[in-house]
Amino acid sequence: MVSRLRRGRAGAGAGFVLAALVGTAGMAGTARADDGEATQASALSGAIAAAPRLAAEDLRQVRPLGAELTDVAPADAPVRFGALLPQARIAPADEIVVEDRALTEERRVGSYGQPEWTTHRRFARSRLYVLPEGTLEFEQWYRGRIDRGEGPRHQFQSEIGIGLPNRIQLDLYETAEHEAGGPTKHVGFQFEARWALANWGELWGNPTLYAEYKLNHHGNDVAEGKVLFGDEFGSGWHWAMNLSGEQELGGAREFEGAITGALSYSVVDQVFSVGVEAEVQRVTEKGARSDPEYNVFLGPSLQWRPTPNTHVDLVPLFGLRDDDIDMTLFLIFGIDLGGAEEQGVHAPAASRNR
Q1: Domain range for 147
Q2: Which of 10, 100, 109, 247 is the most buried (most CB within 10 A)?
Q3: Considering the chain, what is the average pLDDT of its residues?
């Protein structure tokens, strides 16, 4: 973005008057010393009287904004000090160019004025804000769980995200699982809705309310609520934090409260970023609410955007306590299916990697 600020010319006229006074006063000062004080006073009076005329001549030499520097006086021509100022002026002299060097992924897009990097998922465990109005995104998830004494467990999830008016987003999921020694089976369907409380930047942390319902074929249904926060600070630094509560609606009526946090840095604008993610869980069951189980996970977060409308995320989270799951691996592929160009989300290819 280039902004142009134009200065007024009143200051230029005042400068030429002052220069003329100095120049002519200097000529008066070269009068012979033996002419006496009366001669010097007379020369100074003449200089002051000539100042308006010389200043007017200087002002007439000022060129219009944007004019080229031409008609330079010959080297042997008589030079008056006050006349040097217009000749030394670099065209265009009264124009200042200020460049905004923000990252392309941090430019504001869409009707909510959000940064471009928020228009697709950046973190695996921490969500933030909403999709721009009129956009459609597809994501394919892989979630692998590895724990001591148990076989690996694989989960496959397909998601469609829809950006709706009034800062609302709707997501639909289908989930399948495969456990060691067993078949791959469809386990459920879930949907979620988000609502951002204000346009981006109007409230601290850009708070967004989140509600999700899981229809499980082989278990009890689950309802979940979250408050999402996220923003950027400095150039290239992005963060998110979620506060959540998940309630099982039958059986042991397990309740899981959690806080997640994530931080990333853009190594290559709109192409590659690195970061870290963390999650702390507190799990209780009916009849044992006072005896919670805690789980703590931490790991690196990598994102690669091979094209402006696709992203690949790799996030391995490691359990930090003896009773925690050893590792949970997230691998996510996402693609924008429509509406992004109309919202000005994707910059021209020529602006990438600058």
Answers
A1: 113-351
A2: 109
A3: 80
